[in-house]
Amino acid sequence: MDIHRCRFIRYPASAINAVAFTHSSLPSVSGHKKHTQKHIQVRLAIGRANGDIEIWNPLQGAWHQELVISGGKDRSVDGLVWVTEPDEEMADGKVIHGKSRLFSIGYTTTITEWDLEKATAKKHASGQHGEIWCLGVQPASNKGAATPGSRKLVAGTVDGNLVLYSIEDGDLKFQRTLTRTPTKKTKFVSIAFQSHNVVVVGCSNSTICAYDIRNGTMLRQMTLGTDMSGGSKNIIVWAVKCLPNGDIVSGDSTGQVCIWDGKTYTQAQRIQSHSQDVLCLSVSADGSKIVSGGMDRRTAIYEPIAGQTERWAKVFHRRYHQHDVKAMASFESKGVSVVVSGGSDANPVVLPLRGAGKEYHRTLPHLPQNAPLHSAPKAQFLLSWWENEIRIWHLLNPAQKLLDDPQAALGLRKNRKLLAQILVKGDSHISSAAISEDGTLLVASTATDIKVFQLDFAKGQHADQLQIRKVDMVTAGHSATKVQISPDNRWISWAEEGSRVMVARVHITESAAGVTYTISHPSRLNRLRRQIPKQLLLGGLGSYDRNITQMAFSPDSKLFAVADLAGFIDTWVLRGPGEGANGTGSGDDEGAASDSSSDSSDEEPEDVAGEHWVRNPNAKLLPKLSAAPVALSFPRTQREDGDYDLLTITAVKTLLVFNPLRGALSEWSRRNTYPKLPAPFRDTRDQIKGVVWQGHRAWIYGVSSLFMLDLSQDFDPEKDSVDGKNGKKQGTKRKRGGQEGGAGGKMEKHSLAPQRVRTAAGPDGAKWEDVEMADADDQKSVGASSGVDDDDDDDEDTDGGELQRLRDEQGATVTNGDAAEAGKEGVRAAKWWHSYQFRPILGIVPIEGGTGLANGNVSEDHLPPLEVALVERPLTGEDLPERYFGDGEWER
User: Fold this and answer.
1) pTM of this structure
2) Band of the pLDDT at 226, cuts 50, 70, 90?
3) Which residue pairs, CB below 8 angstroms and at least 24 apart, start in 71-74?
4) How would residue 213 be classed by pLDDT, with cut points 50, 70 and 90?
5) Dist. CA 246–CA 232, nearest whole Å
6) pLDDT at residue 735 above 70?
7) How far apart are CA 566 and CA 629, in angstroms?
8) Which residue stretches of 510-606 are H helix?
9) 3-class SS at 803?
C-alpha cells in the first residue's frame, strides 16, 4: 500500500460547551433492577460551539460516537439537559422505561428539543425574556414518581429573570416568568435543583439565590462578598451543584469552591483550589466526591475529611486539558463510574470517579467517527468538507512515481492542487457528502436539502480546470444524514430521517454538447421488520437505534447494504425489468417490497420501471450484530461463486465477513472467531473508523491505529504472537486487574517505576525508537536526537524529507509482492500487522485502483497497486483561542 500522507486538509477543532448524561446514575426501581440494568439506554450528549451535538454510547468503556447532529450558521450549543420520564409497568409485568428527551440552549431566547430518531430539531420555544444562560430540569418528587410530563424546565436569563417552560404531553412551550431581579445588570449564570420545588441560581453579582418555583419566592440569598485578589468587584458564580443531602456546592471567578449548608443556607467551607475561574462542577451520585474544572486547565477532585463531619479537602488535581475546562458531567452504574469533561481544546476527557487515583484517564478524539472525507480513486480527487464548505483537491502524481524518482522536481508537498471550493447555501451545515469514483458527480446533504453537482475536469495547456454545474433533483422535503453514490454512477442513495433508505436513478445522456446528468424521482427501499420488544420502542430513546450509520455498494453496483445502530443489516439486489428477487421474472417473491414486511405501514413501493432494487431473499438470515457496526465494506473483487464478501466491524471489535446472497457467514469468518483475532486488534482502545480493501488484505484504521489483516489466512494466536526475529511474544493481552470503571485501565502496583521511553527519530520525527534507560548519558542523547513534529497545515518541510520519510516507514508504505519478494520486507508475508505511528487520523481513502470497479472483472492475481491518502488532523495551537495564565505560568 502506497500512502499519500496529507495534513493540508482543514478541520478546525470546535470547543465543547456542554456535556450531559441521560442519567447521573441508573435509577433503582424496586423489583425492576434486572430490567433497569439490562435495557436502559444510557447516552452522553456533547454540545459544541459550532452547533454540533454528538451522541456517545459508553459501551462499558468502549465509547462509541453514534450520531452527530450537524449545526448551522451562527449556532452554538451552550447548555444541554436530558429529561427522563418515570417508568411505567405493563400489564404483563414488563417495565417501560421513561422516555428520554434532550433539550439545548445557545445563548439565545430559544430552547430547542432534539429528535434523536430523525437526527434533527423537533421543537423550538421562546418567551418574552432575555438570552438564556442556564437551564435546569425539575427532578421527580420525593413522594413518588411524578405524572409523565409534569416536570418543568427552569431557565435563567441574562437580564436576571427566572422563567418556566412546560414540557407536558411531549410539548415544549413558555409558561411564565417566575421572578425578576430589581436590576437588569444581574445575570443568572448557573442553576441547580436542591429539591423538587427549590432551585438554586448562581448570579453575576456575588450572590447565590434559592427560589421556590411554585410561587417564585426567594427563600434565601447567599453572598460571597467581593473579589479580594484585585479582580472584578463582583464575583461570578459560574457553577452550582447540589449534593444528595441538600448541601450546595459553588464554583466562582475567584477560583474557589464553596460548600454551603443546605438547611441554613450559610457558608460551611471555602477551598482555594484553582488559580483562575472555576467554570464547571460535578458531584457523584452518593455525594462522596466533588469534581471541579477551571480556566487554569486544572481538574480537581475533593473528598470528605475522615473523622470531620461535613468537611472537605482537595485530594489532587491534574491538567488533562490544554485549555479551559468548560463543562463536565458524571455517570455511575454497576460497571461504569466516570466524569466526562470538555472545553476549548475540543477533546472529551473521561476521568475515573469511583476509581479516582486508581485508574488512568482517557482522552476521546475530537475527530468525528465518520470522516468528512471521500475520494474519486480513478480521478485522484480528494473531497473534504467542513460546515458549509466543500473542497476538492487533485493529487497530481502517484506516490510510487515520486519514490522511484528521488530527483523529481515535483515533491510530495507540491503534489496537490486545490481545484474548487463549493459553498452550499443555507443555514444548516453539511452532514454528509460523496463523490463518484470517476470524479464526475458530487452529492452533499444538509438537514434541509440534498444538493447534486456535475463536475467536468479538463486539462488545459496552462492550468487544470474544473467546471461545476448543479444537477436538478426532486428533493422537496428530503434531507439526509448519510449519502452514497454507486461505483457505476447510476444510483444515489441516502438515509432520510435517520432510518429511511432512499434511492434515486442517475440518467446519463451523451450529446455533442457533452454529458448531462438527470436524477429521477427517489424511491424508498423497504427494510425488514424486526422483532423489537414493545417496551423498548415505547420507552427510553424509542427507535433511535434504528438510525443508519453505514452504507455500502458492491463493486459491480448490484448489491446495496446498510447497517444501523441496533446491529441490523439490510441488503438489496438490483434486478432488470420483470425480474423478481431471485431473477426468475416473478415479482411476488418474499424479497420484493411490501408493506407487510417493512418497518411501517406507509412505505412507498420500489420503482419497478426498468432496473429496480428488491430485497435480498436471504437478507433475514443475516444475524443481528452484538453492537453497533463502525465499518461496512465490500472488497474490490467478486467471489467466483457470484456472491460477495461483506465485512463488518462492531464497536466492540467483533469482525465478521458475510456472504449476503447466501445469508451466511463466510468460511473464513467461521474459522476465525473473535478469540482468534490478533490480540492487539482485540485489545486496542482505539475505535475503528473505516476499512480499505486491497485484494484479500483489509486495512483497518482508527484515530491513532492502522491494522492490516490478511483475510485469506487463518489466525493462530499462539503462533502469530511470536516474533520470528527474537522469539519474543508480541501482542500479549493487556492485564486489566479486574473490572474497570469505564475510563482508562487500572494503575498497576509500582506504576511509578521507570517505564519504557520512546523517542521520535529520523526526518521530521517520523519514526519511533525505544530508548534504553541505562544511565544519564543515554538521557542526554535522547534530548539531543529527538525530533519535533511539524503540525502546520502546509507541511513546511523539504521534499527530500518527505521522500525519505516514506522510504523509512516500512510499516506505513507496504506494496504488493509475491512470496519470492516477501523476504525484502517482512510485513508483506505477515498475516497481520499494525502501527500506532500516525498522529490523529481524520480518514483514509483510496486514490488509485480504489475500493470498487465498475466492471468488477479485476482478478486477485492482477490487482493494481493500492494507493491511499492518509489524512492526519492534529489538534494545533491555531485551533485554540487565547489562553489566560496564572501567576508563575509561562507559555512554552
Assistant:
1) 0.87
2) confident
3) 71/387, 71/428, 71/429, 72/427, 72/428, 72/429, 72/447, 73/388, 73/427, 73/428, 73/429, 74/427
4) very high
5) 30
6) no
7) 8
8) 534-538
9) helix
Report which residue type is found at 238.
Answer: W
Residue 285 C-alpha cell reads as 451520585
Cβ 560 vs Cβ 571: under 8 Å: yes
Domain extent listing, the chain: 369-396+414-525
Instruction: Indicate the burial class of 143 (C-beta count within 10 angstroms; 0-12, 13-18, 19 or more).
Output: exposed
Sign of the CA dihedral with 312 first, then 313, 316, and 318 last: positive
Q: Provide CATH code, domain 369-396+414-525.
A: 2.130.10.10
Alpha-carbon span 495 to 483, nearest angstrom: 7
Output DSSP code: residue 437.
T
Residue with the bigger pLDDT between 514 and 227: it is 514
Cell numbers 542526554 label which residue? 780
Spatial contact of 495 and 562, defined as CB atoms under 8 Å apart: yes
| Tens-place pLDDT, residues 775-785 | 433 333 333 33
Using the CB atoms, write b or e for 536-562: b if 16+ within 10 Å. beebbbbbbbbbbbbbbbbbbbbbbbb
Residue 1 DSSP SS3: coil
In the predicted model, what is the mean pLDDT of residues 616-641?
90
Dihedral of the CA atoms 755, 760, 762, 766 (nearest 10)?
130
What is the per-residue burial (b if ≥16 Cβ within 10 Å, else e) of 763-799?
A: bbbbbeeebeeeeeeeeeebeeeeeeeebeeebebeb
Is 200 within 8 Å of 210 (Cβ atoms)?
yes
Give the C-alpha distances (Å, rounded to integers) separating 105 from 132, 155, 329: 7, 9, 17
Separation CA 633–CA 426 (nearest Å): 32
Contact residues for 758 (Cβ-Cβ < 8 A; gap 6+): 768, 769, 770, 771
Which residue, chain included where needed, has cell 498497576? 748
CB 328 within 8 A of CB 19: yes
Residue position matching grid coordinates 404483563: 92
The DSSP bridge pattern shows strands 629-633 and 646-650 to be antiparallel
One-character DSSP codes across 709-774: EETTS---HHHHTB-TTT--B-SPPPP--S---SSSPBPPTTTTS---EEEEESGGG-EEEEE---
Per DSSP, the residues of 491-520 read EEEEEETTTEEEEEEEEEEEETTEEEEEEP
Judged on CB neighbours under 10 Å (0-12, 13-18, 19+), 710 is middle
pLDDT exceeds 60 at position 481 = yes
Q: Could you tell me which residues are beta bridge partners of residue 135?
A: 155
Could you give the 3-state DSSP secondary structure of residue 157?
strand
Place of cell 455517570: 331
Ranked by mean pLDDT, the top range of 45-49, 444-448, 509-513 is 45-49
